[in-house]
Design goal:
Blueprint (H helix, E strand, L loop, with lengths): L2 H9 L5 E3 H7 L5 H13 L3 E5 L2 E4 L10 H8 L3 E3 L1 H7 L10 E5 L4 E5 L2 E7 L9 E7 L2 E6 L1 H11 L5 H4 L2 H6 L4 H4 L7 H7 L3 H13 L10
Parallel strand pairs: 5-7
Antiparallel strand pairs: 1-3, 2-3, 4-5, 6-7, 8-9
Helix pairs in contact: 5-6, 6-11
């Protein structure tokens, strides 16, 4: 076992994920070149896998816990939160066959193809990036920021520029996102005011208000 692998294994970071700061702290007397060589040797031995420059994960035989994809997304590209289909599947609103982790960021859009899967980050500018986003314990002592169902819908509406409440109504949710009509009636609008303040897009704000108005009565029906 490579010396870097031994040290990180003993440290036991959650999911085996670590970055250059961990390497520097584990080998404070080593030069930057020597630390880079340690990482190179561990990667060449397939004991350490590179997620992106400066971010790594121990290979399966050398990690004590499995990395949760939502937690990996959080450190791959920050600030960000899990949203869109990934968040909707997490909340049980759409089928779980989501083959990549989809996140939203106020930074630039990115996509990472890693040994742990594909992670996409779409840019959604917002004055309040955490509006409608919750810190969720996705595994024991492992936390990630995940969009509530309403925020995931708002992010999806923003990214689908042709969607509007007037032209599409619930069809975008039931046909494109595959959300069941009965589940729409159970949506929480608790964070709506904060989200309306946080989103600069009039189209998104109008869509959210239209949803609340259409679902605001116990006997409301989802009109297609």
């Amino acid at each position: 076992m490579q010396s870097l692998t031994e040290q990180v294994f003993a440290l036991s970071p959650p999911g085996g994920v670590f970055d250059e700061t961990v390497v520097r702290n584990l080998f404070p007397a080593a030069s930057a070149g020597a630390r880079a060589l340690l990482v190179h040797r561990a990667c060449r031995a397939r004991e350490v896998l590179r997620l992106r420059p400066g971010l790594y994960v121990l290979a399966p035989p050398y990690r004590k816990t499995e990395p949760h994809p939502f937690a990996v997304a959080a450190v791959l590209h920050a600030p960000s939160h899990v949203s869109l289909e990934s968040a909707l599947a997490y909340h049980g609103l759409i089928p779980e066959a989501v083959y990549q982790v989809s996140s939203v960021t106020v930074a630039r859009s990115r996509e990472f193809s890693t040994p742990l899967g594909v992670f996409s980050f779409r840019r959604v500018p917002a004055r309040l990036p955490r509006a409608g986003v919750e810190a969720v314990e996705v595994a024991r002592n492992v936390w990630a920021f995940v969009a509530t169902p309403l925020r995931a819908i708002a992010d999806a509406v923003y990214l689908n520029r042709n969607v509007s409440w007037k032209n599409d109504g619930f069809r975008f949710l039931t046909d494109s996102l595959r959300i069941e009509e009965d589940d729409l009636r159970d949506l929480s609008f608790d964070a709506l005011d904060e989200m309306l303040d946080g989103f600069g897009s009039l189209r998104v704000r109008t869509y959210l208000k239209g949803m609340k108005g259409a679902l605001g009565h116990a006997d409301s029906r989802v009109k297609r």
